[in-house]
Amino acid sequence: MRNGLLYEWAQAQLTRELFPDCPVKYMPPTRHMDGNLFRTHACDTLFNLVTIATGQGVQTIGVPTEGIFTPHIHDRVLGLQNVEYVFNAARDLGEEIEFKRGGIIQTRAQEVLAGAHELLERIAQTGLFKAIEDATFGDVSRKLDDGRGIEGIVSTDPGYFNPVVEVMREASYA
Amino acid sequence: MPREVDLSSVRPYADHLGDGLVQLSFTLPVPYSLAARKAALELAGKMGFQEPEVVHYEQLTEGYTYFVMYGQCMQSIDFTALQGEGFDIEYMTEDEIERFAEQRVGRRIVVVGASTGSDTHSVGIDAMLNLKGYHGHHGLEGYRSFETYNLGSQVPNSVLVAKAIEVGADAILVSQTVTQQNLHVQNLTELVEIVEAEGRRREMILACGGPRVSNELAKELGYDAGFSKGTYPHHLATFIVRELAARVAASG
């Protein structure tokens, strides 16, 4: 996609600026990867560049075979070497950059932000589960009361008690 | 002036016809050393490569060495003997399929699929239909042009057909893996009979797939196409959009 890198950069930078105190998790676009592991490796190089330049907090490292299968030992090392190389070579690039006013990157960031805001307002009207059913996210629809694994969901009696769940509940509010 | 390819004896091509050069890489669980390098060369030789070369090797971690190599493959393939296999259509990419469907069909294509009868194997139909797909290729669920219904496994033929009618399916996909006592043949045949009894055969595209299904068998049983091992979702999608576009054009 023409200027795909600029759009990725815009979104990564936007996310970083919107959540300055969060170690935002940044993930490679595995969904668009396939068996061409050499292309994947090249894409991951640019992904690493965006990661270091926009100061992402946590990164899921891309590996050449991420579009094929669980990585082999050498795929993991190749992925790590790519990260080390790019992070070192472009270490302070992010500090050097000022984005052109009204340019492609700024415009894209503003469009994404406005779109997200509009979407949230819509979801506030219909509710999150309805939004999921309407295939709002990733063009995939999932029903609230049906689907794979439905047989494993049971309703519990008022007297139901699971000690493990209680411990987990406490832990999450700690 | 370049030589012509001898299709009866095809070897890998890197730089000039007949060079047979192959690039390969692999890890050996041995410490990084000259001995490791020798091991890789010997192994490549045993694989049948002539004049193997290690162009790069490195330690991945203690006890594991990674090699990038080249070697000449001395084997060849008679390509002329293979040309009758499977389909003769040019497969399209996901993007091409989406565009083709938009231009030539103009609406969402409804597809219903399942592993039928007593067959519990759903890996195949899931690979074709579910978003996750196979080897990085999305299933039909991931295409804008398709509306998919994966009913899973052990679905009676009658239920599959009923669902297809209910959602106005353009295509029914049947997955059959079990072939004991030709169970798959009986089961596949029954589906065609049910569709015909419902008077829907002409409007629906019927396709079946499985490790022991072939296009020839499928056609014999009354299907429009049969798919076997090595089929990816975009192969199936290419077939469906082309077939549907042809039908739309014929009736329009």
Task: Tell me about this structure.
- The complex is a heterodimer of chains A (174) and B (252).
- Chain A is mainly α and 174 residues long.
- In chain A, 53% of the residues lie in helices and 2% in strands.
- In chain A, strand 1 (25-26), helix 2 (37-53) and strand 2 form a beta-alpha-beta unit.
- Chain A is globular.
- Chain A starts with a helix and ends with a helix.
- The mean pLDDT of chain A is 91.
- Chain B has 252 residues and is α/β, with parallel strands linked by helices.
- In chain B, strands 5-4-6-7-8 form a five-stranded parallel sheet, with helices on both faces. A three-stranded antiparallel sheet of chain B has the order 1-3-2, with helices on one face.
- In chain B, strand 7, helix 6 (215-220) and strand 8 form a beta-alpha-beta unit.
- In chain B, helix 2 (94-104) runs parallel beside helix 7 (233-251).
- The radius of gyration of chain B is 24 Å and the shape is elongated.
- The chains are: A mainly alpha (174), B alpha/beta (252).
- The A-B interface holds A 33-35, 67-69, 72-74, 77, 138-140, 148 and B 25-27, 60-61, 64, 66, 131, 135-137, 141-142, 144, 152.
> Helical element count of chain B?
7
Question: What's the β-strand tally of chain A?
Answer: 2
Query: Termini of chain A, distance in Å?
Result: 45 Å
Percent range of helical residues of chain A: 40-55%
The average pLDDT value of chain A, as a whole number, equals 91
Oligomeric state of this protein: heterodimer
Task: Please summarize the sheet with the most strands of chain A.
Answer: 2 strands, parallel
Order of helices and strands of chain A: HEHEHHHHH
* Fraction in beta strands of chain B: 15-25%
Strand-pairing-aware structural class of chain A? mainly alpha
